[in-house]
Design a protein that fits this description.
- The complex is a heterodimer.
- Chain A starts with a helix and ends with a helix.
- Chain A is 79% helix and 0% strand.
- Chain A is mostly helical.
- Chain B is α/β, with parallel strands linked by helices.
- Chain B is built from 18 helices and 20 strands.
- In chain B, strands 6-7-8-3-9-10 form a 6-stranded mixed sheet, with helices on both faces. A 6-stranded mixed sheet of chain B has the order 16-17-18-13-19-20, sandwiched between helices. In chain B, strands 2-1-4-5 form a 4-stranded antiparallel sheet, with helices on one face.
- Chain B starts with 7 loop residues before the first strand and ends in a 23-residue tail after the last helix.
- The chains are: A mainly alpha, B alpha/beta.
- At the A-B interface, helix 9 and helix 14 of A face helix 2 and helix 3 of B.
């Protein structure tokens, strides 16, 4: 078991290297670099910069070096805790992103828990009562949830909240608490705001997971071991939860791997609409202005979240399913 | 036999179980009566779809949807108020009353030992659960009981085995664990639904011994469902023959076998007895000339490697084939017999070169062609030879694409090799359908419209479409009912003579091999332990494993029960 975990963690190293290369390539993909887009900005504002200054900037930021050297510079510094300086904000990248990544992780985590808590019982119900009125209602709502773009849902919920609850819902904090130190009232304020992004981001995930749970459980309900358990005289509810649901849980658990990145990256538009202090909006900004260190760091951290999510789901699966445990 | 009411455990009266409703009703069980007595075994025998399993489920009131018990009674004697009979069919299927009876008074063993136990719970958890469900005992006590039960069903080292998961057990061990679970609360009636069908014959013989022993010790009633007349002869006191949802005949086992009344019973026995000897067609076929060899296999070896921690291939995995050698004469039928895991399917696939052997030769000498060593060919060069060597598969349901019409299925090889197209192609397929005894208009329909036997005929038509010289048939009749088996085998023999084909006929079933094959090779753990004329190997087996194998085959005659001593071979003693 310990060996399995160790091996999984070791496997993350090559994955991480691959991911960092991809992240670096992505931020290099658009034509030009930060200096070009900076020059273009200056030109549109009517005071074109002189080429010598621009060249000096390039040299200062190391943009004149070959890509490979730039990559090793970047990754070496990153491993030493220096993520570089944002061209745009002219502050170290680390200072900008820590707070935002924390908020992203918080929103993603809460959403995941919310998704599971709702999707699990609803999915089980939908499978056990297949083709009942309740199942049809759930199915209808699921398709509706999957089909609704979540930024639209965000606008809708904001409207409802302002009209009926009477408080502003932009961001994760009220203006009073925006820059305050952590305290009980600030947490309460956070919770008052958090439910909206969690709800908005969770709907599509819930809809998908309910369908997955339903399909998996329907497969399992017809299995002979369910009949064996029934012939033992188990009450129906205990039976369904203890046997088929337990087995059907596998794909459910492995969703952590993919739900996490979807939540993290899928929130870009929603975060912009709700003006959340998460990583999404500044990632878009960084990519637009070719702020390579900021963009690269954000992409890399999202990828790391995916790796961690996958590791978590793997470990959960191993804990849950002896067949996987003994396969190693 | 003393007729006393006190001996009756369960009485089934006029039971009918229907599936669907309205005009679409299918009467799976149609007004049957059964009597289950203490200390006696009733075998319910019939072909697939005759309603045996539904009957068993109706007794426990666990009929799967959309089935329902339409009428009739299942009387459990002594369970009602004041010792009166209790009608189980009338109880709410989810209610407390029927749940208390399931697993305690009546318990059940299912067919598939792999899938009938939960894969994610230990054997112990599953046995303890049933004990604690019906009896007020502590977890520790229940565990003690479970260990004792495992010991009774002769599972070695029960203290350790109780914490094992089902997938760590072999099929026979799983079925023992299942039996322990069913008997944990000492039921009055044990229902066993084809408990040995998925097992090898030697394992089956062990499990049958075990169940008979336990039944005598515990004095319970047993209802044993099977399609295998050999098993019936081995274990039954009484027999009920089911056909299309009805019981057509019932009586003591000796009467059923030696004085059958109903025409269906007679037909069933005839088809079983037909397989007890060589096919009548075999004598009409000229003896193959042993010098004219079509296939020569020499020292064929193949290992399935284990994988090490980082996915690399480790040296020395499982030896699926271990220096296998044999030769096949033109026009000959060679049987390959062995139990699961003996390597017989691997051998078939290696001959087809679906698998690449590690060492050895497979020399195929086609008509008017130079001999080719298939083992040495690169994967890409094998394709042209698949015109001459074709395969018939075991599962007539899985081996036909459900989304292709029969025309498309049979025409596929013809099209692949560019033999025919358009109207000519259809004419060829029509001829093939005629040849395997199916109507020509079958070509427009999809495989699901056909029964298992008809599907296997479609598979045969596909295999002979290219007029091959050699056919590898892997368990070609295992999925078919006994009454169809002889027909399909006869068809294959006729076609073999007509097209002068040779067969490598893989089967676990000795009777099928004896019916069909000129010679037989017995495989055990990747080796051929014995090869020779079928008659000689069956009547006078030389190798101890062959002897064990043949002695484990149940004879379809209750009068021979216990006549032949079982011979056990080494590791097989504990299944």
């Amino acid at each position: 078991m310990l060996r399995f975990i160790l091996r999984r963690v070791l496997w993350m190293i090559p994955s991480f290297i691959a991911v960092s290369v991809v992240a670096f390539i992505i931020i290099q993909l658009p034509p030009g670099d930060f200096v070009t887009s900076y020059a273009a900005d200056l030109a549109t504002s009517g005071s074109p910069a002189d080429p010598a200054t621009l060249e000096a900037m390039r040299i200062r930021y190391g943009l004149d070096q070959p890509l490979v050297i730039q990559y090793f510079h970047w990754i070496w510094n990153a491993l030493n805790g220096d993520l570089g300086v944002s061209f745009e904000y002219r502050t170290p990248v680390a200072d900008i992103i820590w707070g935002r990544l924390g908020m992203t992780a918080l929103v993603a985590f809460c959403t995941l828990i919310f998704v599971w808590i709702v999707a699990f019982p609803v999915g089980v119900y939908s499978a056990v009562r297949q083709y009942s009125v309740g199942d049809y209602i759930v199915t209808f709502l699921c398709f509706l949830g999957m089909a609704t773009p979540n930024f639209l849902l965000a606008l809708f919920v904001m409207y409802l909240s302002v009209t009926y609850l009477g408080y502003s819902v932009g961001g994760l904090f009220s203006p009073d608490f925006e820059n305050a130190a952590w305290s009980l009232p600030r947490v309460v304020d956070l919770l008052k705001h958090l439910w909206i992004p969690v709800l908005v981001l969770g709907v599509a995930g819930i809809a998908a997971l309910v369908r997955i749970m339903r399909a998996n459980l329907l497969d399992e309900l017809g299995k002979p071991y369910v009949e064996t358990a029934r012939a033992k005289g188990l009450p129906e509810l205990t039976l369904i939860l203890r046997y088929p649901t337990r087995v059907a849980l596998n794909p459910f658990i492995s969703t952590v791997g993919w739900v996490l990145p979807v939540l993290v990256s899928g929130d870009v538009i929603v975060s912009s609409v709700l003006s959340l202090p998460t990583a999404g909006p500044i990632l878009i900004q960084a990519l637009k202005t070719q702020d390579m260190y900021l963009g690269g760091a954000l992409i890399m951290f999202q990828c790391i979240l995916v790796l961690i999510g996958t590791l978590l789901s793997d470990l959960l699966l191993v804990w849950l399913d002896p067949r996987i445990r003994y396969d190693r | 036999m003393a007729e006393s009411a006190g001996d009756i455990v369960v009485e089934v009266k006029n039971l009918s179980t229907w599936f669907g409703s309205g005009g679409d009703t299918f009467k799976a069980v149609d007004g049957i009566d059964l009597m289950l007595r203490r200390g006696r075994t009733l075998c319910v025998v019939g072909e697939s779809g005759s309603g045996k399993s539904v009957t068993a489920r109706s007794i426990l009131n666990i009929v799967p949807k959309p089935g329902r018990i339409a009428e009739g009674q299942v009387l459990l004697h002594g369970a009602g108020p004041g010792g009166a009979p209790l009608d189980l069919a009338a109880l709410n299927p989810h209610g407390r009353q029927i749940r208390a009876i399931r697993g305690r008074d009546i318990s059940m063993i299912f067919q598939e030992p792999m899938s009938s136990l939960s894969p994610v719970h230990t054997i112990g958890q599953q046995i303890v659960e049933v004990i604690r469900l019906h009896q007020k005992v502590s977890n520790a006590e229940a565990r003690e009981r479970a260990i004792a039960m495992l010991e009774q069903v002769r599972i070695p080292r029960p203290e350790q085995s109780i914490d094992a998961y089902p997938f760590e057990f072999s099929g026979g061990m799983r079925q023992r664990a299942m039996t322990a679970m069913a008997l944990a609360c000492e039921p009055k009636l044990l229902i066993a639904d084809e408990p040995t069908t998925a097992l090898d014959v030697t394992t089956q013989a062990e499990i049958l011994d075990l169940m008979r022993g336990l039944q005598q010790r515990l004095g319970m009633a047993m209802m044993f469902i099977t399609h295998d007349m050999g098993v019936v002869a081995e274990i039954a006191d009484d027999v009920a023959v089911m056909y299309r949802g009805k019981i057509v005949e019932t009586g003591p086992v000796d009467e059923i076998f030696h004085a059958p009344q109903h025409p269906y019973t007679r037909r069933l026995l005839d088809s079983v007895l037909a397989l007890e000897s060589r096919s009548h067609l075999a004598s009409k076929i000229a003896r193959p000339n042993p010098a004219d060899v079509i296939l020569e296999v020499r020292d064929l070896s193949l290992s399935f490697g284990g994988r090490d921690a980082f996915g690399g291939v480790k040296a020395g995995g499982v030896k699926a084939l271990d220096a296998v050698s044999f030769s096949l004469a033109r026009g000959e039928t060679l049987g390959i017999v062995g139990e699961s895991g003996s390597g017989k399917t691997t051998l078939g696939r290696s001959i087809m070169r679906i698998l690449a052997p590690d060492a050895g030769n497979i020399v195929f000498s086609g008509r008017d062609a130079a001999p080719v060593d298939l083992a040495a060919l690169p994967q890409g060069a094998v394709r042209p030879l698949w015109r001459d060597i074709r395969m018939i598969f075991q599962d007539p349901f899985a081996s036909l694409n459900p989304r292709m019409t029969v025309l498309q299925v049979i025409a596929e090889p013809l099209r692949n090799y560019g033999v025919a197209a358009g109207a000519e192609l259809e004419e060829r397929v029509g001829e093939l359908l005629d040849r395997v005894g199916l109507p020509r208009d079958a070509m427009r329909r999809y495989p699901h419209a056909f029964s298992g036997g008809q599907r296997q005929r479609i598979g045969i038509a596909r295999a002979i479409a290219m007029r091959p010289q050699l056919i590898v048939a892997d368990e070609a009749t295992s999925a078919l009912d006994v009454s169809l088996r002889a027909q399909v085998l006869d068809l294959m023999l006729e076609l073999g003579r007509e097209l002068s084909m040779s067969y490598v006929f893989i089967s676990h079933d000795m009777s099928v091999i004896r019916y069909m094959c000129d010679r037989v090779a017995v495989m055990h753990r990747g080796r051929i332990v014995e090869i020779g004329e079928t008659e000689a190997v069956c009547e006078n087996p030389q190798h101890p494993y062959t002897r064990a194998l043949i002695s484990a085959i149940p004879k379809p005659d209750p009068r021979q029960r216990g006549r032949l001593a079982r011979i056990r071979y080494g590791a097989e003693a504990v299944a």
